[in-house]
Structures are given as C-alpha cells and as structure tokens.
Amino acid sequence: MSRIVAGPFNRVEGDIEVTLEINDGVIEKAEVTTTLYRGFEQILCGRPGLDALVIAPRICGICSVSQSIAASTALRNLAGGRAAPNGYLAANLAHAAENIADHLTHFYLFFMPDFARAEYAARPWHEETVNRFKAVSGSGSARFLPMRRRLLEVMGVVAGKWPHSLAFQPGGTTRAIDIGERVQLASLRGFSSSEEADYGVSLYTIQYMATVADL
Questions:
Q1: How far apart are alpha carbons 18 and 31 in whole angstroms?
Q2: For residues 162 and 152, is the Cβ–Cβ distance under 8 A?
Q3: Number of H helices, E strands in the chain
Q4: Domain co-membership, 20 together with 111
Q5: Is 174 helix (H, G, I), strand (E, B) or coil?
Q6: For residue range 55-94, what is the model confidence (pLDDT) as tens digits?
C-alpha cells in the first residue's frame, strides 16, 4: 500500500490537503484536511448573538450569503421564531443566485482552465478546451462574466450589496423590493435558455441524469 499527500490546494477559502491510501492502483481511503485555522468560533464567543450577522459572512468572500443564511437561521432557531414568508423567499432567491454564480466561477475560472495547459495537448479534447476555457483568451469568459454579473445584480437588489450584506436577519430580510426592482429580477429568465442553447438539452434533463449512460 502506498500513501500520497497532495497539497496545499489554495483555490478554496483557506488551504486544504488531500491524503490518499492506494492499494494495487485503487484508492482505499481518502482524507481531506484543512490546514489553515482562522478561529471564527473563538471570535464569536462571548459576543451578542446579532454580532454573528456581521462576523460570520467574513468567513468567505465567495459564499458570504451562505454564511449569512446559516447565522440568521441559527439565531432564529435559538429564538424559536419564524421569518415572514416574503423574507424566506427573498433570502432564498439571493442564496440561489450566489450558489449559481459560485458554480459558474468554479467551472469557468478555477477548474476548466487547468485542462487547457500544454500537458494535455495530446488529448483529443484539448484544442476545444483551449478555445473555450484558456485563461483570458478562451471564449467561455465572454459568456461567463456577463452571466455572473447578472447574478450579482440579483443579490444587489435583494440584499443591497454583495458580499457581506447585512440584509439577512432572523426575521427575514431588511430590504424592501419595489416594482422597478421586481422587473429587474424578472429579466433573469433568459439565463437558463442561454445555458440550454450551449448544452443542447434542458437544464431539467441534466438535473435528472443519474449515470454516465444518461448523457
């Protein structure tokens, strides 16, 4: 049995390290370890509960809404309360927008450009990958950046700003959405059709693919 330790991987919020135990070419055990400790748990100790709504989003600049939602949900559960229905909807809308934006960022900016490197030049898919995903020059950036901008605009409408918004509270959100902003939010409907045109199938079809054979 051989043991491989790879890392640190730093394209995450803090470095991680991966340890693999391999037996006859088969990975029998894999462990992921976070090697950077920042101590947010200790920062929050002894503070008023509402301070978490300011401090927790700073855990991550990429997924700060997720941290805000977690903090506000924890405080709401502690109080045994419920958010207003529109508060749930607004928070979930901002959370979904950030989630989609993060997936796009990871795919187009962090993950796929690695496969455009010269080490993969002999692979049959390399030329197309270079054309679409090579950093700066790939055509994917021209599609990805406007889509990400629109998603960040959704978070701006719902939460006032991004990242580190203070709009998410145990009782819902603090920012009212007027008629003009509702129209602005409705303009996002073309997002899925843009992606479907690229993939050739509906996003719902992709969602329910269970195995490689479904491709």
A1: 6
A2: yes
A3: 9, 5
A4: no
A5: coil
A6: 999 888 888 999 999 999 999 999 998 888 888 888 998 9
Phi-psi region of 136 (alpha: psi -120 to 50; beta: other; left: phi over 0): left
How many residues would you count in the chain?
A: 215
Largest CA distance in the chain: 64
Give the domain range for residue 64.
47-177
Residue 181, number of CB atoms within 10 A of its CB: 15
Coil, strand or helix at 39: coil
86 and 170 housed in the same domain = yes
Give CA–CA dist 100/154, Å, rounded: 11
Q: Is 16 buried (19+), middle (13-18) or exposed (0-12) by CB count in 10 A?
A: middle
Q: Is 169 in contact with 53 (CB distance < 8 Å)?
A: yes
Token pair belonging to 6 = 């790879």
Report whether 59 contacts 13 (CB < 8 A).
Answer: yes
Strand partners, 22: 2, 27
Please report whether residue 27 resides in a domain: yes
pLDDT over 80 at 203, yes or no: no
Answer yes or no: do 57 and 141 share one domain: yes
C-alpha 91/C-alpha 174 separation (Å) is: 10
> What's the CA gap between 81 and 104, in Å, rounded?
34
